[in-house]
Amino acid sequence: MNENRRAVLKASSSLTVLGLAVSAGLINPRDVFAAAPGYNEKAFQAKNLDELMKALGGKAPKESNAITVVAPDIAENGAVVPVGATSTLPNTTEVALLVSNNPSMLSAHFVLPAGTEAKVNTRVKMGRTSDVYALVKADGQYYFAKKEVKVTLGGCGG
């Protein structure tokens, strides 16, 4: 049997068991994430940029035109909004996606290994029209760019 196939089957069965345990109430999803290395609970609970920067241990970010927020101008369904960011700043090590009007501002946080292209994409929920921020850490400093996304059908209800 192919070793890669064996590894994939083993990982998928583990994830299935974990999913069943969470859905049965045997495991709290928060406990699973809290155990993950690098998970910053305070950052994901931040309600505004000041709280987030304090949780990340950084100073106020500077706006940069070397960062691009990739998001639609109008999201027809706030429950599934494709968002992303690209950075041409040298030595980019982290990219975070923020939605200012969501109950928790931080929607995704990516740590990039050295030499990795600074380009990330995901989907987020948005309860209403909001600015979407790309927060980038490069050379130990934080930078940002933002784009307004208009939501026509609610998503997260926050």
What does this structure look like?
Helices cover 26% and strands 35% of the residues. It has 158 residues and is of the alpha+beta class. The chain has two domains: 32 residues, no CATH class; 107 residues, Sandwich (Immunoglobulin-like), CATH 2.60.40. The strands form two sheets. Strands 1, 3, 5, 6, 8 and 9 form a six-stranded mixed beta sheet that branches. The longest helix has 21 residues. The chain is globular. It starts with a helix and ends in a 7-residue tail after the last strand.
SSE diagram, text form:
Layout: H1 3-23, H2 29-35, H3 41-45, H4 49-56, E1 62-63, E2 67-70, E3 74-75, E4 81-87, E5 92-99, E6 106-111, E7 119-124, E8 130-138, E9 141-151
Q: How many structurally independent domains?
A: 2
Morphology call:
globular
Largest sheet: 6 strands, mixed
Task: Write the element-wise H/E pattern from the N-terminal end onward.
Answer: HHHHEEEEEEEEE
Number of strands: 9
CATH topology of the largest domain: Immunoglobulin-like
Beta-strand residue fraction = 25-35%
| Number of alpha- plus pi-helical segments | 4
Main structural class: alpha+beta
Q: Name the CATH architecture of the largest domain.
A: Sandwich
In whole angstroms, how far apart are the ends? Answer: 49 Å
Q: What oligomeric arrangement do these chains adopt?
A: single chain
CATH homologous superfamily designation of the largest domain: SoxY domain
What labels would you give this structure?
single chain; 158 residues; alpha+beta; Immunoglobulin-like; 2 domains; three-stranded antiparallel sheet; 4 helices; 9 strands; 26% helix; globular
